[in-house]
């Protein structure tokens, strides 16, 4: 892991296990397989990271954090740490979905995992440029953000 600069940035390295029966049933019922597997995997990543932080996260709390992480372990870890901070301030010993939802809503992370910058970016493309095309330099100027921020922080998701 240390030899790979990408994997070295990930706080929790985990293997993706075989699909659970419920996941297989969901796929057979027409759910998008990558979303079903990713959600369950990210929930396990959140649960493991919580144990490393000595934080008790209920399954529904892990689900809520994973749901808003856009299928990215690094984002899930970042959101988990922010939720932990809110839970500490609120005096909550266990992070349930309610605590995770309150915390992430206060941080302006919506149900899709989009934050305020993501929404500004998408709104600009949809409303001002009528769905595009629009160049990255134009977006950077309109959002008052450096081109690198657009390319490396917003656009990958």
From TrEMBL:
SUPFAM superfamilies listed in its UniProt record: Winged helix' DNA-binding domain (SSF46785)
GO molecular function, one term: four-way junction helicase activity
Domain named RuvB winged helix C-terminal: residues: 112-157
Domain RuvB AAA lid residue range list: 40-110
Alphabetical GO biological process terms: DNA recombination; DNA repair
Coiled-coil regions listed: none
Pfam families referenced in this protein's UniProt entry, alphabetically: AAA_lid_4 (PF17864), WHD_RuvB (PF05491)
Name of this chain's protein: Holliday junction branch migration DNA helicase RuvB
Protein species of origin: Staphylococcus aureus
